[in-house]
Amino acid sequence: MNRPSFAERCFDLVNMLFLVLLMLVTVYPIIYVALASISDASSLMAHKGMLWHPLGFTLDAYSYVFQNPMLLKGYGNTLFVVVVSLVLNIVLTAFGAYALSRKSVQYRKPLMLFIVFTMFFSGGLIPLYLTVKGVGLLDSLWALIIPQAINTFNLILMKTGFEAIPDALEESAKIDGANDFVILFRIVLPLSMPVIAVMLLYYGVAHWNSWFNAMIFLQERTLYPLQLVLREILLQGEANANSGASDGDAAALAASMKYATIMVATVPILFIYPFLQKYFVKGALIGAIKG
Known about the structure:
The protein is built from 13 helices and no strands. It has helices at about 5-35, 40-45, 60-65, 70-100, 110-120, 125-135, 150-165, 165-175, 180-190, 195-210, 210-215, 225-240, 250-290.
């Protein structure tokens, strides 16, 4: 085995340094938010530049956020929406992707054109609201689940992943008497775990961060998801700050609360990602290999 040349070693070193720098640039905003959320609010307001350590350790911002009685209720509503939506998303997207990936399906290309058309043109907010109201989903958590059952981009990505599975597997299964449901659940889905992992991450993050639909479709505060509850907390903090309370302490606390709410909303997703990481890169690249 030939030893790497001097030029190759220099390239590896420069490449490694560049990737480390890129990693720091990517990770530092999260570090900054985490440190700012546990810093003294007044010291944080006066601080300029980068932040590498807490400025007077305090959990006042988290204490204020968790004092809100709606926070745990918001977590529960969001978890319900995320779990139920993911089941519905994966099942319906898998059904659609499997049908569109089969070469024997008639009018497959025209159907794909109609589906892709929805990525660029939609009916708009008012028709969506009237539809949700007309079917009786208004002021219900199902209004956050059913209208978002299938995402066109995710459908195309899963369809591309299914098309990468050799046709010989399907043909041999049909010879043994398997129908389409058996082929989908016992052959296609087990061989498409990287794609499924990407779907879980894409759909899960979208549902976890969603707040606009909840603001439009929900009026009952007990149904608010986490993001809408955190929005209320921030607005309340800003209102207290604008009221001119005690020498700017309220304004400083409101600024610190922004970082605390970001951490409260982000940490659960950050803990889940490492479990899907080994599938993520392979699954995400499928759509780039074959369209």
